[in-house]
Design brief:
By secondary structure, this protein is mainly alpha-helical. It has a domain of 74 residues: Winged helix-like DNA-binding domain superfamily/Winged helix DNA-binding domain (Arc Repressor Mutant, subunit A, Orthogonal Bundle). Helices cover 59% and strands 7% of the residues. It has six helices and two strands. The protein has a two-stranded antiparallel sheet with strand order 1-2. α2 packs across α3 and α2 packs across α5. The chain is globular and about 45 Å long. It starts with a helix and ends in an 8-residue tail after the last helix. 22% of the residues are buried.
Length: 110
Amino acid sequence: MTEAEGSRRRRTRYDLAANIIEAALKPARPTDIAYRSFLNFSLVDRYLEYLIAVGLIQKHKDSLYEATKSGLEYLETYRRIKHLFETRGDEGTAKGEALRSRAPEQVVRS
């Protein structure tokens, strides 16, 4: 897959959660998080509510949001799993195509 093709793929909800947590490594406002994660404000707002509810993001005074320790653990695990899939070495092969066609993926449009 070329870089251009990769940038056009739809992000899963797991990708979006990781992008938002990464954007909130330091305390940030929702508009800053939206800008850093290349998402619209309403989607970021919905995800922030969910990520707070599951303990991956915390809200500070003055509407600042920051990743929690659990959020950092999620981000590290997400990166390790993503790396495993990207380094399998079977990109572009018949086996790689078969694996991708069977892989379940829930798509979130951003």
